[in-house]
Amino acid sequence: MKKPNSFVRPLYLVLVFALLYLPIVTLMAFSFNESKLNAVWTGFTFKWYESLLQNESVLEAARNSFSVALVSTAVSVVIGALAALGLYRYKFRGKGLLDAVLTIPIIIPEIVMGISLLAFFSIVRLPLGRLTLIVAHVTFSVAYVVAVVKARLDGYDKSVEEAAADLGATPLKVFFNVTLPVIMPGVVAGAFLAFTLSLDDVVISFFVAGPQSTTLPLKVFSMVKFGVTPEINALSTIIMFVTLSAVGLSSVLRKVNLSVGKIGGLLAAIAILAGGTGYGVWAFAKGPQQPPPETLSIFNWSEYLPHSVIEQFESAYNIKVHYSTFSSNEEMLAKLMAGGGAYDLAVASDFMVEILKKQDLLLPVRKENVPNLSNIGAQYMGLPFDPENEYSLPYMWLAGIIAYDASKIPEGTIEGYADLWKPELKHSLTILDDQRAIMGITLKTLGYSLNETSPEALEKAREALKALQANVKSYDSDSPKTSLINGEAKAIFAWGAEANLARRENPNVRYVVPKEGLFLQQDNFVIPKSAKNVAAAELFMNFVMDPEISAEISAHFPYGNPNVEAYRYIDQEILEDTAVYPPEDEVRRGEYLRDIGEAVLLFDRIWSEVKQ
Amino acid sequence: MAGDVFVRLSNVSKRFDRETTVVNDLSLEIEQGRFVTLLGPSGCGKTTTLRLIAGFETPTEGAIVIDGEDVTRKPPHERCVNTVFQSYALFPHMNVYDNIAFGLKMKNVRKDEIRSRVSEMLRMVRMEGFESRMPSQLSGGQMQRVAIARAVINNPKVLLLDEPLGALDLKLRKQMQLELKRLQRKLGITFLFVTHDQEEALSMSDTVVVMRNGSVEQTGAPEELYERPKNAFVAGFLGETNIIEGKIGAVEEAEAVLVLEQEERSFRIPNPGYAPGEACSLSVRPERIRITSSPEVGEAWLRCTVKERIYSGSLIRTIATTVAGKDILVDESLEQRSRSADGDEVFAAWKPEHAVPIRA
Amino acid sequence: MRERTYGARLPGMLVTVLPAALWMLAFFVVPLLLIVAVSFCTRGEVGDIVYTFTPHNYAKLLHPLYGSIFVKSLIISFFTTLLCLLFGYPFAFIVATAGKRLRPLLLTLVMLPFWTNSLVRTYAMIILLRTEGILNTLLRWAGLIDEPLRLMYNNTAVMIGMVYMMFPFMVLPLYASIEKLDMRLLEAADDLGATPLRKFLHVALPLTKAGILSGCLLVFVPSLALFFVTDLMGGSKVVLMSNLIKNQFLTARDWPFGSAVSVVLILVMIAAIALYLRHGGKVDGKEAM
Which of A130, A164, C121, C279 is the most buried (most CB within 10 A)? Predict the structure, then answer.
C-alpha cells in the first residue's frame, strides 16, 4: 500500500505549489521583459526598474507605507503585548468581552472596519491622512499581536515570576528581567505580523488614506487598473524580494536563543535596520533638494495630467504638488463631501460644477490672477452650467467615441450607439463605468436626450441596458484603451483621447462618431471651499494655460484642448484626429450633461440593478 | 541560636472567596536550624501555608513573624526567605550561571563576588562546568540542583521547598533526599519542606507537622508522630496501622479499661483523664503484632482467623479477621513468621506498650 | 491559575489592559456602533447624512436586486471556501505527515505568497488568465484551443482570485489540527479493517473538525470583503456585497444605505461565528495563528 502513495503525495504538493507560485513567478519574469504587454517575451531589460525608481509617486507611496507601518507596528505591539499580559494574568469583570473585542478584528470583513473608520473620522472631522492610516492600522494589528502573544503565554510558567520576586526583584524588575524576555519571541513575532499586515493592507487603507498619503498597495491598485507598463511587475518583484528577506530574517531570529544580552543587541539591530531602510527610502525619494515650504493638493481625473507638467510646475515655483486621482465625477463629489482632506484644486465636469455650486462647495475663481485665461477660446467660456465662469475655468473637453479593432470587427458594423447592441458583439465591449454616460447614450438610442428624467423613458432605458449586458465584457473608466490594446475587447466606448491612444498602440483601431449625436463633456478647474492654498491653485491654473504647457498635456493625453493659443504647438496629427477633435458640426449637434437633481437617485438604482 | 523559635505563625487564616478556607486559624512555631516538613494529603493547606510564609499570599487573618520581624504584609522580594519551586521555575532565557546569580544581582552584589559565590554554589550542588548551559538542556535532577543553588546562594533565613522532588523518579528522589538533608546540616539554615509523601517526611525531617483541612493535627519528631499519634488520622497517615475501636469501661486513677465489646476483650491503658463510656481506639502497627497459637503472659491479644497471606520480599503480611469481623494487618519478617495457613484459628498478639490509645 | 494577591492589583491591571481597551473602544466599537446608527438614517439630496430614524434602508435591501447581490456573494464565498477546503485538506495532510524537518520549510513556502502584497498576487492572476495572457497564449500555441478561453471578468474569475488569496488561511488551521492527530488512531482503524475512505470519514475527519471549522470561518467571512478582487478580476461586471458597500460609500454617496449593507455583513459574520461555535469551534485567537 505504501508504494503508490509515495509519489502521489509529493506530486500533489508540487502541483499545489506550482499553482501557487506560477502567477508570481510569471510576474517576476515579465518584469524583465522588453515588451510592454505581459504576454510575449521579447527581450531582457532592466528599464522598468529604472523608470520605477524614478517614479516619484511610487517612492512617495513607499515612504508612506513604511512610515505608517513602522509607527503602527510600534504602537500596536506595545498596546497588544501589554493587553495579552493583562488578559493572561488577571481576572476581571468584562474580561470575556474584551477578549472577544480583541479577537473579532481578525475575522471581521475588513471592508466593514474600513467604512466604519471612514464614517468615524468624517464625523469627528479628522482629515484623512497618515494619522488616520496609522490609527486604522493599529486597530486591526492589535488583535493579531494579542493573539500571537497570548499563544506564547500559554506555555508560560507563572512561577518564574514568583521565583524572581522571591529572589528579591521588585515588580518592575520582574517585568523587565523575566516577563518581558520570556515573552519576547512572541512579541517579536507579533511585531513582524503587524508590520506585514500594515504594509499589505488594501481594503481598510482604501477608505482612510488621504490625498497626500497613498500607500504602496493603493498605488499598486491604481497602477493595476491601468495595467499599461511592466513597471508594476518591477515594483511587485521588489516588494516580494523585500518581504522574502524579512521572512528569512525572522525565521533566523526565531532559532536564535533570546537571552537577555542578546535581546539588547537584537533590538539595536532591528532599530538600525528599520531606521536604515526608512531613511534609505526617504532619502532616495526626497531627492537632493530641501522640502519645499508650500504644498498644493490637486484632485483630478486619472490619466489627465502628465507627471512631467507637475514636475515642471514644482521646480518652477518650488511648490510640492500632491496629486490624487478619481475615476468618476461621483467619486470626486463623494470625496469632496466627505471632507476627506483639503484639496486646493479639483477638476469637475460640466454638470458636476452645477451640483458643486448648489452644494456651496466652491470658492469663486479670481480671474484676475489667471492672466493666461485669455488663451482659452471664446466658444469654451460662458457655457450654461457656469455662465459667468464665476466658479470654473475650462480645462479640457472631450467627446465620447466608439473605437473598434478593425481586424476583429468589419468596417461599417458600428455606426452609432445602437449598433453596440448587435448580437455579433457579444462579450466584446469595454465601456465607461459611468452611469450618466452610459445611461445617457442608451437614452439617446431610444430617441431621448442625454438628460431625460421621465420615469417611462428611464424604464425603457433600463430594459435596453439590461439587454446590453451580454455584450459588455467589462466596465472601465480608468483606462478603457487597455482593453482595446491587449485584445480583451473588440470595441470600446470611451473618451476620444483614449481612442487616440489606443490607435497609437494598435494600428487596427478605427473610430466611429455615433450617428445619434455626440456626448460631450467639458471639464473645468474648480477651487473647493476647503482649499488651503488658493494662491498656489491659481498659479497652477495659469501655468497649465501656458500654450506650450497646454500642448504638452495634449501630447500625452489628447483630449480636446480649449486653449487655442496652444494649437500651434500641438501635433498636427492630433488636431486632425476626429476622435479628439470631431467635425465641428457634430460638436455643435452634441449634448452636454446637466444636473438632473433628485432623478440621479433613480439613475443610481437602475445602474446597480443593471450591473447585476 | 539553633532551637529558638525562628518562624512563628499566629492564628493565621487564609480564605479565597467567601466559602473556601484553605488555612484555618493555624498557629505554628518553627525552630531555627531545623529541617521541618509540612505533611498532609492534597488540599490540606500545606502549600498555601508555605506560600504565606514566602509572601506569595497574604493572610486573611493572623500574623507571620520571621526572626523577630513581622512580615505579614511584606511582599516576597522584601522577605529574607527563598523558595525552591515544584516546577523549579528556572528562568528559561538565562543560563545556569545567570539563574543562580539572579538573587545576588538583584541585591547589586559586586561582579567578582558574584562569580566566586556562584562557583562555590555549583560545587556544592555538584554542577561545576554547567555555567553556560540553558535550562532546556538540563535533566530534571540537574534543574532541581540549580533551583536549590539559586535559592541557597542568597543565604536566606529560611529555605522553603514546595514538593521539589515530586517530578523525579524513585531512585533519583531517594538520592536527592539524602543530599538535601546533608545540605541542610551543612548550611545550618532552617528548611521548611512540603510533601504529601509520609515516607519522605519521616526520613528527612527533624520535625514533622501533620496538616489536615487547613489545621495542624500534630507536630513532633518523626518517631514521636509515628509511635505516639494523637489521633486516628495521624496514625493512619504515617505508615499503616490497625485501629481497634472500643469504649472506656471502668476508670481508675492511673489506668482505665478499654472494652472491646464485640471482641469480648478488654485492655488496660494509661488514663490521661477518660470518662467512662467515652469512645476510644487502640492503634497497633502491623509490625508490632505477631501471629501465634499461644500468646505469652503479659501480651495483649485478639482471637482471629487467618484470611490471607501476602508475600512481599522482606515481609510476610497476614490479614486475619477477628471475632467481630475486623481485618487485622500483621507484618512479620521471614524468620519470625508463624507457620499458619489460611483458615487457621490463631491469636494476634502484641506488647501492651506498643498499643497507642487514641481518643476519637 | 492563581491571581496575584500580593501587592496592589489595580495599577498592574490598568497599565496592561486599559490602553488596549480604550483604543478598541474608541476606534473599533464606537465606529461600528456609528455604522449601525447611520444605517437608520437617510441620504440627503447630494449625499449628506440626514439624521432621522428610519428603517427604510433595510426595506430597500429586501428589493430582489440587492437580495440577489447578497445571495451571489454568499454563494461565491461559499464555493471559495469549499475549493480552499478541497485543495487545502490533502495539502495540509501531506505537510503534516511529512518529515519533521521538512514541515517548517513547506509551511513557509505556503505562507510566502501570503506575505507578498495581495494586489500583486491578484495582478499576477490577471496576467495569467487574460484573453491574451500567458495561459491562453500557451494553450493556443500548443494547439489545444482555437478561441481564447474567457477566463476573466466573470464570477469564475472572481472565485479563482479569491481562492488564490485565501488559500493559506485554510491551510494553516487545518495543518495545526491535523498535526495534533494521533497517527496511531489511523493505524488502529487500518488494523480493524477500515478502507482508506472510511478511515478518512470516520476517524480523520471528525478528529480534525476543529481545524476544518477554523479554516472555513477564516476564509468565508473575510472573503466577503475582498472588493478589489471583484473589481480587478470581475471587471466591474461582477457586483458583490463588498463592491456594493464601496460604491455606496464612495460613488453613490448613500452612506446610510451602505451602512445598512455593512450591518447585514456584520450579521452574516455573527451568524457564521454562531454556527462555528455551535459545531464545537473554539474561541481562541490561537486558531488564527
Answer: A164
Asked if the C-beta of C134 comes within 8 angstroms of chain A's C-beta atoms, the answer is yes
Interval B297-303 mean pLDDT: 87
With an 8 Å Cβ cutoff, is B87 touching chain C? Answer: no
The pTM (predicted TM-score) of the whole model is 0.75
The reply to whether A155 touches chain B by the CB within 8 Å rule is no
C44 touches chain A (CB under 8 A): no
Which three cell numbers mark B146? 540549580
Architecture of the A399-519+597-611 domain: 3-Layer(aba) Sandwich (3.40)
Q: What is the pLDDT of residue A264?
A: 55
The contacts of residue A252 (CB under 8 Å, 6+ apart) are none
- Answer whether A21's CB lies under 8 Å from C113's CB: yes
Q: How far is A280 from chain C (nearest CA, A)?
A: 21
Do B56 and C7 lie within an 8 Å CB cutoff? no
C251 and B CB contact within 8 Å: no
Contact A223, A232 (CB under 8 A): yes
B58 — contact with chain C (CB < 8 Å)?
yes
Residue C175 maps to which CATH number?
Answer: 1.10.3720.10
Closest partner CB to B83 (pick from A163, A178, A259): A163
Tens of pLDDT, residue by residue over A131-147, are: 889 999 999 999 999 98
* pLDDT confidence bin for A474, thresholds 50/70/90: confident
Neighbours of C53 (CB within 10 A): 8
Given CB atoms, is C199 within the 8 Å cutoff of chain A?
no
CB contacts < 8 A, A to B, total 76
Nearest-angstrom CA–CA distance, B164 and B182: 16
State how many domains chain C has: 1
Which of helix, strand or coil describes residue B295? coil
Query: pLDDT by residue (tens digit) across A490-540?
Result: 999 998 888 888 888 888 898 888 888 888 889 999 999 888 888 999 999
Mean pLDDT on C218-225:
90
Are the CB atoms for A135 and A210 separated by under 8 Å? no
Q: Domain A52-286's class?
A: mainly alpha
- Which residues 425-464 of A have a C-beta within 8 angstroms of B? none
- The reply to whether residue C91 touches residue A12, judged by beta carbons under 8 angstroms, is yes
**Which stretch of DSSP H or E encloses residue C70?**
helix C64-96
Is residue C46 situated within a structural domain? no
Instruction: For domain A294-396+521-570, give its CATH number from 3.30.565.10, 3.40.50.720, 3.40.190.10, 3.50.50.60.
Output: 3.40.190.10
Higher pLDDT, C18 or A283: C18
- Pick from C2, C5, C6 the residue to mutate for testing the B interface (most B CBs within 10 Å): C6
- Alpha-carbon span B69 to B65, nearest angstrom: 5
pLDDT in tens, B155-180: 888 999 999 888 888 888 888 898 88
Per-residue pLDDT for B345 more than 50? yes
**B chain contacts of residue A157, beta-carbon cutoff 8 Å:** 87, 89
Q: How far is CA A547 from CA A312, A393, B97, B222, in A?
A: 14, 15, 80, 110
- pLDDT, one tens digit per residue, over B193-227 is 999 888 899 989 999 999 999 899 999 999 999 98
Model pLDDT, residue A73: 92
In a domain, C62, yes or no: yes
> Does A182 sit within 8 Å of B95, measured CB to CB?
no
Which residue in the block uniquely carries the three cell numbers 466577503?
Answer: C224
Of A163, A184, A258, the CB nearest to B89: A163
DSSP string, A327-366: SSHHHHHHHHHTT-S--SEEEEEHHHHHHHHHTT-EEPP-
Domains of chain B: residue spans and CATH: 5-237 (3.40.50.300), 242-359 (2.40.50.140)
